[in-house]
């Protein structure tokens, strides 16, 4: 364990971590598909081993279907479902869980191999443990989220638990990405500028809040609350944002309030990233810095356009059908993830300092 890593010996570890980044990104997108197709509550049990394999025989399918028939979602929303309908939503939830298991395998097996090969420095052990703990926590929160939609009169998972599951997944994604960057980006490629660093941190904080409200939008199906743009139901500030008489709970339970905040944060992010980009273009830096400093601006503009298209097409939603809204919503989520990674990249590349650039 005390062996120092050379550039060549660290490369397999970095590649392994980047494969993990790609798999986690796909997993988050699969979560989006699962949500958009209403599939998340189709599997009512969590069987770590036996749940790996889907039903095969007709009797096995009927058994799973009967379990689903006991859920509030079936009785209150999908009581007209046929076995064919059930198989469709079952597939997406099963595949989402299967991919999570594959991520675990892809992380554990190379970890053991690299451990035997003594590729890890002592200072890498703690981050590795944190990585595995975050992965395990994400799985546990995922099941808690699903369980929240299986009781009472719930027809979907609780929005707050959906938001927690989503944010933890993004945290795992960024942590893995950051770990890979530590092995891939040499010190001479870094830039030192305290102002850019602080502004990037501020933007990331706002973006995390925006992600939370994006999950609230999804959990409450709030896109349809105001399917217009640039106005919000022909208003600049829509009425009814305090209509629930619940005070601050309107911030997390009121659809139009959530919708208004989500839009406002999008505009704020655009302004902040424009300011960040102007500052970065005024600052000298390494070639790597110059090649990548435009990414956040490009992505936030694309993100805003996809968000507008999602809102405008929200009335085209047909239950259990994949259409234009679902495509734009999924691309909206994908672009948001790339925006997060681009800002994480800038945060890693630009260190606090007195406007100093490595030669």
Brief account:
Helices cover 67% and strands 2% of the residues. By secondary structure, the protein is mainly α. It folds into two domains: 1-184, no CATH class; 187-359, no CATH class.
Keywords:
single chain; 359 residues; mainly alpha; 2 domains; three-stranded mixed β-sheet; 12 helices; 67% helix; 2% strand; disordered N terminus
Describe the protein's architecture and organization.
The chain has 359 residues and is mostly helical. The chain has two domains: 1-184, no CATH class; 187-359, no CATH class. Helix content is 67%, strand content 2%. It has twelve helices and three strands, in the order H-H-H-H-H-H-E-H-H-H-H-H-H-E-E. Strands 2-1-3 form a three-stranded mixed sheet. Helix 1 packs antiparallel against helix 6 and helix 7 runs antiparallel to helix 12 (324-349). Residues 1-8 have low confidence and may be disordered.
Secondary structure layout plus pairing:
Layout: H1 7-36, H2 58-68, H3 72-76, H4 83-116, H5 122-147, H6 159-184, E1 191-192, H7 194-219, H8 250-253, H9 255-281, H10 287-292, H11 295-312, H12 324-349, E2 350-351, E3 356-357
Parallel strand pairs: 1-2
Antiparallel strand pairs: 1-3
Helix pairs in contact: 1-4, 1-6, 1-12, 5-6, 6-7, 6-12, 7-9, 7-12, 9-11, 11-12
């Amino acid at each position: 364990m005390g062996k120092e890593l050379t550039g060549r010996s660290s490369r397999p570890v970095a590649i392994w971590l980047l494969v993990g980044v790609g798999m986690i990104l796909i997993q988050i997108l699969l979560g989006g598909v699962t949500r958009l197709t209403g599939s998340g509550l189709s599997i009512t049990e969590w069987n770590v081993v036996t749940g790996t394999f889907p039903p095969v025989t007709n009797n096995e399918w009927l058994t799973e279907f009967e379990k689903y028939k006991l859920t509030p979602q079936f009785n209150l929303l999908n009581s007209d479902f046929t076995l064919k309908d059930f198989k469709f939503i079952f597939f997406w939830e099963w595949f989402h869980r299967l991919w999570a298991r594959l991520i675990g395998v892809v992380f554990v097996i190379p970890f053991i191999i690299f451990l035997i090969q003594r590729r890890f420095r002592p200072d890498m052990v703690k981050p590795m443990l944190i990585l595995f703990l975050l992965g395990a926590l994400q799985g546990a929160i995922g099941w808690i989220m699903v369980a929240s939609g299986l009781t009472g009169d719930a027809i979907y998972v609780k929005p707050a638990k959906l938001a927690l599951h989503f944010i933890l997944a993004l945290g795992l994604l960024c942590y893995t990405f950051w770990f890979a960057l530590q092995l891939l980006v040499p010190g001479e490629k870094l830039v030192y500028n305290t102002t850019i660093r602080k502004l990037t941190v501020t933007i990331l904080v706002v973006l995390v809040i925006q992600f939370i409200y994006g999950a609230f939008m999804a959990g409450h199906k709030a896109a349809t609350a105001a399917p217009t743009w640039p106005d919000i139901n022909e208003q600049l500030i829509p009425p009814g944002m305090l209509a629930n008489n619940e005070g601050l709970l309107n911030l997390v339970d009121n659809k139009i309030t959530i919708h208004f905040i989500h839009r406002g944060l999008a505009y704020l992010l655009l302004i902040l990233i424009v300011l960040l980009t102007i500052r970065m273009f005024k600052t000298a830096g390494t070639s790597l810095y110059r090649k990548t400093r435009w990414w956040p601006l490009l992505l936030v503009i694309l993100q805003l356009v996809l968000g507008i298209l999602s809102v405008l097409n929200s009335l085209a939603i047909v239950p259990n059908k994949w259409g234009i809204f679902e495509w734009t919503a999924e691309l909206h989520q994908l672009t948001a993830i790339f925006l997060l990674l681009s800002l994480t990249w800038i945060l890693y590349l630009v260190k606090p300092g007195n406007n100093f650039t490595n030669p």
